[in-house]
């Protein structure tokens, strides 16, 4: 293998994208109805505010800006990204929940959206099942369990063996309530160990500390760590999805390594306030169907190791409800608190 993106990696990833893309292309015939729907609805007539509950420069922000630019081109109105960071995204979510449901304030959020209010924000946190109008899920990616090159951890089995023999381990995540945090806790439960969660303010500092040997384990999305895996600063011990990633086919899943119940992915979605007009939802869903078929978007998603997975509002609502319930029960069972 000559590098991280070897021919076999690219071929496997391309095949996966072609298979998924076929379904998106079938749906793309709906895109022509967007202009007609806009004409009938007379929306939008002014700039749209796309709220991102995270700082500029991170994966959520970068992806949100990509979609904002493409959405603006289709809707013929500016789509302005508004970063309202804090409390694992709940500050931005609350802002949108309280907004007028006129379609001019919408939320771009990661899957932390379904989990974080269970841990942070208290009574002021929005109800993810009742306070929003789900519009579309627009991408997903498995997570990775990684260790630093100097950690001395050679495998998942080796980590668990050391932990059961009394060695204390910490693990890093980009924040409380993130899928990475939850993956660590699910793994703790399944493996019968207790790694201590160390929440960071974003993925970048957690990777820096793992590479520097200050923390032994980190959970991250693929796109954030590929450069560090390429130079062997970070070593992937496992993927968290049921099947191996086509981008990293040599990395075994946790399911393969004796933890079959672990199947966790990160995703990104668009939501509006409760009561958003169904015609506006339809326009936005149609627009994202077209966006996810644009070659340059697919190319950029590939560089971020994100699969262009599309769900409509009904499917997204089911995803949010299921994850909110599952992780809510886990949080209660383990009596998890914000560290």
From TrEMBL:
Signal peptide annotation: 1-39
Key words, A-Z: Signal
CDD domains named in the record: PBP2_Bug27 (cd13578)
Coiled-coil positions: none
InterPro entries: BUG (IPR005064), Bug_dom1 (IPR042100)
Superkingdom per UniProt: Bacteria
Family of this protein: Belongs to the UPF0065 (bug) family.
Name used for this protein in its record: Tripartite tricarboxylate transporter substrate binding protein
Species, as recorded: Lampropedia aestuarii
